[in-house]
Design brief:
Layout: E1 4-9, H1 12-29, E2 34-37, H2 44-55, E3 65-68, E4 70-72, H3 83-90, E5 102-103, H4 112-125, E6 131-134, E7 156-159, H5 162-168, E8 181-184, H6 187-191, E9 195-200, H7 206-214, E10 232-237
Parallel strand pairs: 1-10, 2-3, 2-6, 3-5, 6-9, 9-10
Antiparallel strand pairs: 4-8, 7-8
The structure holds fructose -6-phosphate.
Amino acid sequence: MMSMRLYQAKDYDDMSLKAANILSAQVILKPDCVLGLATGSTPVGIYKKLIEWYKNGAIDFSGVTTINLDEYIGLSRDNINSYQYFMRQNLWDHVNISPENTHIPDGTTGDVKGECLSYERLIARIGGIDMQLLGLGQNGHIGFNEPGTAFDKDTHVTKLSDVTIEANKRFFEREEDVPRSAITMGIKSIMQSRRILVVASGVQKSEIINKAFFGPVTPSLPASVLQLHNDVTLVGDAEALSLI
Ligand code: F6R
């Protein structure tokens, strides 16, 4: 049964502020919570706010554990395009979270299957995810669960679709440099999160937001599965929500 809260923000900054407020409320209510985190352009403003509030004493990450959705295969932790690097740059290095409490798949392991298995065990060991932050791909992916992914998958290796490679090439020098595969939490892993916070900004997300939340639930649009979750909050700016 869909139970979704919808917050319309004016613009990107307002979206970031509202979503950061929701995440920080989670941390204040449960100081030892587990936050599931995302990379990409959309959450950058949220992380900036959280850093600001940490610096002015409003929020404390000392008890928090974070677990990220995904990582490219083949990029080392110090590669500037790895999601591990992104997270350090955009959040972890600027707040008082213990490095041992930050988790992201290892994209350089020789044993990717083993890595996926141990990532699932890790999610269980830390007690599951209290609040999972999600961005939406223009093709409706969540994490790197591309269209066609079965809803019952847990953490697995996935090939990136052409649309995703095209969208993500903006961060790389050449399109050939974009990794072709990734380790991602599966839809099942994501759906087991107790609460889900989806963020979207810009007119290029408007169509997919509309279809995902108000169209049929289908693996050809992975984010549509969120209609089946009982605690989803969507924060979008006016452009992203312009079609609903
Ligand atoms: C990132 C992730 C992706 C992004 C999505 C949207 O960890 O899993 O699903 O959330 O591709 O990316 P942006 O925010 O760059 O539009």
